[in-house]
Structures are given as structure tokens and as C-alpha cells.
Amino acid sequence: MRVAIAGAGLAGLSCAKYLTDAGHTPIVLERRDVLGGKVAAWKDSDGDWYETGLHIFFGAYPNMLQLFKELDIEDRLQWKEHTMIFNQPNAPGTYSRFDFPDLPAPLNGIVAILRNNDMLTWPEKIKFGLGLIPAMIQGQKYVEDMDKYSWTEWLRKQNIPERVNDEVFIAMCKSLNFIGPDEISATILLTALNRFLQEKNGSKMAFLDGSPTERLCQPLVDYITERGGEVRLNAPLKEILLNPDGTVKGFLLRGLNGAEDEVFTADLYVSAMPVDPLKVILPQPWQQMEFFQKLEGLEGVPVINLHLWFDRKLTEIDHLLFSRSPLLSVYADMSNTCREYANPDRSMLELVLAPAKDWIAKSDEEIVSATIAELEKLFPDHFGGENPAKLLKYHVVKTPRSVYKATPGRQEYRPSQVTPIANFYLTGDYTMQRYLASMEGAVLSGKLTAQAIAEANPVTNPSHLPTLTRPPATNAATV
Ligand SMILES: Cc1cc2nc3c(=O)[nH]c(=O)nc-3n(C[C@H](O)[C@H](O)[C@H](O)COP(=O)(O)OP(=O)(O)OC[C@H]3O[C@@H](n4cnc5c(N)ncnc54)[C@H](O)[C@@H]3O)c2cc1C
């Protein structure tokens, strides 16, 4: 069957990949002139890459890792030491680490937490451990039920001192959803802790060895096109055209540069767009349906990604860093962490600015100068003295609506991949799947959509059907 997919982010491309495996013919229609959506990247006139976001791959991403394997590009993941490194605001320029020893889970995580004495006191560690007991006993159902609380409310409910937020969880919340602990749903943190503590390598991190567009999206496109599928850039979906019975008649594509609009028809249709543009484009009759009305409960959160090139090396650390700065979230010196961006003499810091709601409308110059002020605290040796590090150039990428904002109560608004419209499916990180709004969630959602289509429309002799890769089975104890 011909399946039209609007959106060439990871969800749309993963859906197309698994549809070709199932013997179908996907045609991916992407609005922009670049692949990847929220992992899109661009080369500047000097040949340097800059990206929509600093992206980390975790050991706890089974479907993503399986995809790398299936594309035969596993060597592109640059795995780092199993540790989490936090800046110490009270001692500028120093770091505190959670080192995971080579022990089975959850022992390695427990030892990592117990051995760190910079950030949490022993009473705080004990109270946090006790607070997690209901989650350990009741498992995933408990994690889902906690969606009614923010993380801070959950800490209070469990009698865990709120200082643990200041020390660890503000940084973790910002890295997971670009918002703080008072806003984020407890389910998000508990889900991440669950994976990190249950799987030996769950929190182990990898950087891609180059730009996601070239090093991950392009191999997906090659895979799809080699098997009869198609990926078209500059093909924005303008309108979903309906049959009298409310099913999809075609995708109306906006003609660019004076070209006429085009009606694109297929046997089945998939939206792989983010939830915000999908809401805008929903046909009027569908807007009355409860399934689609629920999308109103989801909205993308703003975030900003900065790239700063300096005249010298600021650090040799080859890892992700949690800044613990009020302005910034995580950052990395990509000249150390990423093979294609490597430079032995100069640093290129890639930094995520979050929460970004008060910054998204500001000029790039204002954003960069506020960031440099923060770097004076993160790298006092290089910015304080008489010969401060010189900024050679920068790129600022703003995403006013990125992943859906995971405030309490959002879980019930996340739609399934199968819709009430017989020939229309959804995919995307915001759709219901067991991972958060993440690359893993996007890839899994694409797989789930392809699987739903393949089950409803079996093809004789497909090359192989998508198989879901689940985390290792656990008992009730999930956190
Ligand atoms: C700053 C930042 C940092 C991040 N860090 C991480 C991280 O470290 N680890 C992690 O796992 N995840 C991270 N993420 C999240 C991750 O990038 C996303 O969850 C994932 O890429 C979303 O994929 P998607 O396919 O669901 O959506 P998208 O990537 O948004 O793809 C949707 C596609 O639809 C296209 N589209 C929109 N409208 C139309 C239209 N009308 N017609 C045709 N096409 C259209 C868009 O152009 C886009 O290409 C980060 C995100 C950001 C922004």
C-alpha cells in the first residue's frame, strides 16, 4: 500500500522504515528543506555544523539502539564513561560526579548515589530512598498515577527534603523537558529514574559522531528509498482533504515559490508532524471528535540551543555536563565529545537554555551575552582574568514549540497512533508510548504506527514485520 507520511522527523522516518520492512510503500512529505525535525542540523559557511538541540542517546533507548543496528551504523554512537557530571555552583569551575560502577542494576545506581557526598547528605539520601518505596512496590501503575502531581508536590508528599531539587532535580527536570520541578509531572522523573535504576546501562550516554541529519536521518532515507519508498523535502502539508464520510481523500501540498498546490493521494495517511501544527491543520469535522479535541491538552515548550566557538580549549571533559545554572540546562564541549566536530585546540560549547519562555523573544545578542555571563561561573579560569577566552562566532537556534510540555495531567491527552479515522494514523513523540518525548519515543511511535498499519493491512511476504524492543522485563519493582 502507498502510505503518505507528513513529516520527516525521527517518528516519520522510523514509521517509513518499518513500513518498507512490512512490504508497504511510504512517501514521506517534509515541509522544510532539511531532514530531522527537532534533530535537524545545518552547515554554516565555514563548514561548521549547528543543531536544533544537543542530543544524547541513552543505554535505556532499546528501539533507537535496535534501529542503529538495523541500519548498520552502530559505530556512529560514541559511548561515554558511565557517569553523570554536575557543575557545583558553590565552587565555580568544579564538578561533582555520580560514577556508576560495573555492577548489576540497581546496585550500580545505588552505589553511584551513595558514593556522592558533595550534593546530597546521608539523611537526604535515606529519605529519598524511602520516598521511592511505593514506586518500587507498586511499579509502573504508580508511576502513571503520579501524573497528577508535579515533581515538587511529589517530593513533599513523600517527605523528601526539597533541597534535593536544588542539588539534583532542577537540573534533571530541565534536561528532560526544559521546565523546572514545580511544573513538570512527577511521572516524567519517575519514568527516567525507573529506566536508569532498572537497567545496568540505562543512564549510560552516547553522542552521535556527527550531525544527526547526515549521520542518522540520511541512512534512514537511504534505507527507505532503496526499498521503493520516497522522501520529499519542501513538501508542506497545507490541508487534509476529506471524503464525504470523513475519511482522508488526499493531502493538499502547498506549492512553493509560485508553484501550484498539489493534491497528493495514497491508500493511507499518517501525520508525523508535531502536535502544534497538527492542531492547526485538523479538518473542521474532526475538530468535533473527542479523540482530536484532546490534542488541545498538549502544547510544545520553548527551548533554545546555543553554539559558541572559542579561541581556546575551555575543558578536556568528554561528556555531558549538567550546568545547574538558572539560565542553562545541560551542555557539552562538542570539540571533545563528537568526532566530526573535534578540535584539539579550540572549544565549541553546545548549550541548552531552559526554561526559555522569557528568552525566546529576545535577540541572539542578548541570549549570547547572558550565556557568557553564566560561563564566567562555569569556567572562572578562562573568563575571569586578564586574558579571557574570546568568542569567535556563535549560532543560536530557537524552537518556540519543541516537545510537548509535560506538566501534570498530560498523559491522558496523549493520543494513540490509531485514530477513529479508518485511513489516518498519527505518529510522533507526543503520541502514547512508554518513553518520554524523546528520540527513543519518536522512533518507538513510528514503529508502533507502522505495526498498526501492517496488522490492519497485511502484505504477503514482507521482508520482516516490525518487532517492538522492550526494556528488560521487571517485576512490580520498577523504580
Ligand atoms: C533542544 C532539544 C534538545 C533535545 N535533546 C534530546 C536528547 O538529548 N535526547 C532525546 O532523546 N531527545 C531530545 N530532544 C527531543 C527529540 O529531539 C524529539 O523528541 C524528537 O526528535 C521528536 O521527533 P518527532 O519526529 O516526533 O517530531 P519532529 O522532530 O518535530 O518532526 C516533525 C516533522 O514534521 C515536519 N512538519 C511540520 N509541519 C509540517 C507540515 N505542514 N507538512 C509537512 N511536514 C511538517 C517538521 O518540519 C518536522 O520535520 C531534544 C529536543 C530539543 C528541541
Automatic annotation (TrEMBL):
Example GO BP: carotenoid biosynthetic process
Subcellular location: Cell membrane
Top-rank EC class of the record's enzyme: oxidoreductase
Family matches, as SUPFAM superfamilies: FAD/NAD(P)-binding domain
GO cellular component, one term: plasma membrane
The keyword Cell membrane appears for this protein: yes
Cofactor requirements of the protein: NAD(+); NADP(+); FAD
GO-annotated molecular function: phytoene dehydrogenase activity
Source organism superkingdom: Bacteria
Protein topology in the membrane: Peripheral membrane protein
Its EC number(s): 1.3.5.5
Keywords carried by this UniProt record: Carotenoid biosynthesis, Cell membrane, Herbicide resistance, Membrane, Oxidoreductase
Domain spans labelled Amine oxidase: 10-453
InterPro entries membership: Amino_oxidase, FAD/NAD-bd_sf, Phytoene_desaturase, Zeta_carotene_desat/Oxidored
Signal peptide region: none
Pfam families: Amino_oxidase
Pathway assignment: Carotenoid biosynthesis; lycopene biosynthesis
Keyword Oxidoreductase: yes
Family, per entry: Belongs to the carotenoid/retinoid oxidoreductase family.
Protein's name according to its UniProt entry: Phytoene dehydrogenase
Species name: Amazonocrinis nigriterrae CENA67
